[in-house]
């Protein structure tokens, strides 16, 4: 989930970067002055923007793609403990050991 969120956040961040470069093309003659004077501030802003976009994409993935996870896991747990399942012997032995303790 983190890898997908990082990928989506990177795409959004790059799209915003290209859009802002297109919008701010009139600042090209002063590029060296801007970079020399404000590089740390721009880098800090970009890092915070990326972190916020990453957090937003993680929140969206959790909100929409992990819906009803607890209900699904409870159903899976009930299947394991009732014995009405088609699990491998390895998984069955792990859960069988926990019940005996």
Please characterize this protein's 3D structure.
The chain crosses the membrane at residues 42-60. The protein is mainly alpha-helical and 101 residues long. It folds into two domains: 1-67, no CATH class; 69-101, no CATH class. It has helices at residues 2-23, 31-65, 69-82, 89-100. Helix 1 (2-23) runs antiparallel to helix 2 (31-65). The model has no long low-confidence stretch (mean pLDDT 84).
Question: What is the string of helix and strand elements?
Answer: HHHH
Briefly note the structural class of the backbone: mainly alpha
| Helix percentage range | over 70%
Count of the separate structural domains: 2
Mean pLDDT: 84
Number of helices: 4
Quick overview of this protein structure:
The protein has 101 residues and is an all-alpha fold.
Which helices and strands occur, and which strands form pairs?
Elements: H1 2-23, H2 31-65, H3 69-82, H4 89-100
Helix pairs in contact: 1-2
List descriptors.
rod-shaped; 2 domains; Magnesium-transporting ATPase (P-type); single chain; transmembrane helix; 4 helices
